[in-house]
Design brief:
Elements: E1 12-15, H1 21-29, E2 36-40, H2 58-65, E3 80-84, E4 99-102, H3 108-121, E5 126-130, H4 138-146, E6 153-155, E7 160-165
Parallel strand pairs: 1-2, 1-4, 2-3, 4-5
Antiparallel strand pairs: 5-7, 6-7
Length: 166
Amino acid sequence: AVASTLDDGENFLEIGTYNGKTTINCATNLKKNSKIFTIDLPENKKIENIDRQDDYLEYDKKLIINHKRKEKDFRKMENISQIYTDSTKFDFSSVNFSLAFIDGGHDFETVKSDSQNCISHIKKPGIILWHDYDVTNPVGNYLHSISNKYDIKWIEDTRMCILKLV
């Protein structure tokens, strides 16, 4: 729903592609000249071959090795650009985006890095959404740590938070 509010030519950045269902849903709802950039770890990597393997939560490790990550099929979607990299090493200034959806690594340092990069590089006005917000997990802990600086709102009856930047 939020993707459909973007103006024509405004882009969407997703961190954490997984199987691509959210990516396809959002890409379908973008206007004609808008694009979704979606970042995910390379599919062919095994957790033991990733530089930051000890930093990942067990939950994330299970997602990284799950075969469903390879089920995405964007061939018919011209407005999707898949980027395979570690988001903590990505140059966010290389993409133009007005909406970000953060659902990659769930450990505190990755959430912090992804959030800071999105806040710093998003085109304003812009919107950032975080998934997997639970009050006592690393996503929630990080969002609480910056809530005195940013007006982050929990979306009632969901596991999501939103920040509107002007």
